[in-house]
Structures are given as structure tokens and as C-alpha cells.
């Protein structure tokens, strides 16, 4: 697979996730966030299980214990991201959630420096400042304007960054992207459902009321989109993957306007534009500079 094809897969994943924000928001009219997270990922696990068995049968070597643990770790990062995002949607809009989640594009290279001394291009730092300015405008010109849901979504974005980083370190090394995807789904499904049994009221009627959203989030946002992410990341960099996946912010705003009639004031739209610009700059500027340097090299 070429890098262009991989990036197109990631773009498709972003579009599917953008629509998924609508499903996540409407589901909580009838069901708790932990139960929704648990059920959607149990559905996702079942969807990809046949492909896992096929992949395993063709694998040259079995996975080592350390590789399984790495897969479980990715699942924990995903659970942190999705759970924070899901609770955030209780008190923020689909549009805000989509754009604030997209901050992982800036956070991914920053956390790469902190954790693994992987220094990004210098443009990342002004891009981070641009993104923070966008958050400021999105909050209405004051950080106190950010709701609890907005802050939870930002925490979820940090977990998203960690998930992207650790997928990049695991997917290419093992050559088992579907197994990695299924493992992270199973971790989220088991933890989410177990926590819901302890902390949330559960009824068959509530589950039936959110069945469409659960199936969409499980089959498409989960089983399909996250698997596309893992497959695509085998052939591109973590930073480049983050920029294409960040298209979910644009799609979330689009679908939020179409299906939920959400609208933003001018200042907030300016903030969204700055956040999106920071996402694009993080990847586009380094790529242009690399091409120029390549042309100048004798």
C-alpha cells in the first residue's frame, strides 16, 4: 500500500468518526456513557473477529507476550480517549467536541518529544500556540467559558495522541493490525461494560432506545474506522496520520449542522478555523520544506 492510499484510508476514518459524534451525542438521551462505550466496542470486537482469525492463520509467527501487552496498552489509551470524549458530550456540542478532539494533531508530536525524545519540526510550536488561541476563541474569549465537557474533551484528545503514538510503535513491528484493532476494542468493551454495571442504571428498554447509535458506533466508527486507522498507520507517520484523522473535526461540524442544527457565533468559528489551521500546518509545512531540501540536494 502506498502512503497516499494509506492517508486516504485515514481520511475515510475521519469522515466516519465525524458522523459518529452525532451518534454519540444522541445516544445519551437514553443510555449512560459507560454503557454506550462498552456496548459499542463489544459490537466492534465481534465485527472484526473473523478477520482476526484469518490474519492469525496467515501469520508466520505467534505474537509474543510483550506484543499482546502493547496491544492492551493501546486499548487502555483508547478507552481513556473515548470515555473522556463521551462524558464530555454530556455538556458540550458535537461541533466543539469534534474540534477539541482534533487537538491531538498538535499534542501528538509534543508528547512524542516528552516520552520518546522524538523532536518534531519547529513549526509544531507556533501551531500549538495557534491551536490554543483557537480554543480561547471557541470558549467565547475566556477560558472560564470552556465547559466541563470541553475540558474532558481536551483530556480525551491527549489520550488520542497517546493512542496514535503507541499504534505507530506497535502496528508496523508486529504486522498484525487487525489483531491490534480487535484487542483495543475488547479492552474498551470489557472495561466499559464492567464499569457501567457498577456505576450506571441498565435496562433493556434504554439499550433498545440507543440501538441504532450503538450499532453505528460499533460497526462503522469502531469496527471499520479504527481498523482503517490501524491499517493506514502501517504505511505513514504518526504525525501525518494525526493530520488526516483530524478531518473528523470538519465532518463533525458539518454533520452537527445538518442533523442537530448546531450553529456557532463568528468568534467561535474563527477559533475552529485556527484549530484546523494548526492541524494542517503541523504536517503540510514540514512536507514542503522536505521537498525543497530534496530538490536542493545535489
TrEMBL record:
It is found in: Cell membrane. The chain crosses the membrane at residues 37-56, 68-87, 99-116, 123-145, 151-168, 180-202, 214-231, 243-261, 267-289. Keywords: Cell membrane, Membrane, Transmembrane, Transmembrane helix. Pfam families: EamA (PF00892). Residues 7-139, 149-282 form the EamA domain. It comes from the Bacteria. The keyword Cell membrane applies. It is a multi-pass membrane protein. This is DMT family transporter. It comes from Tianweitania aestuarii.
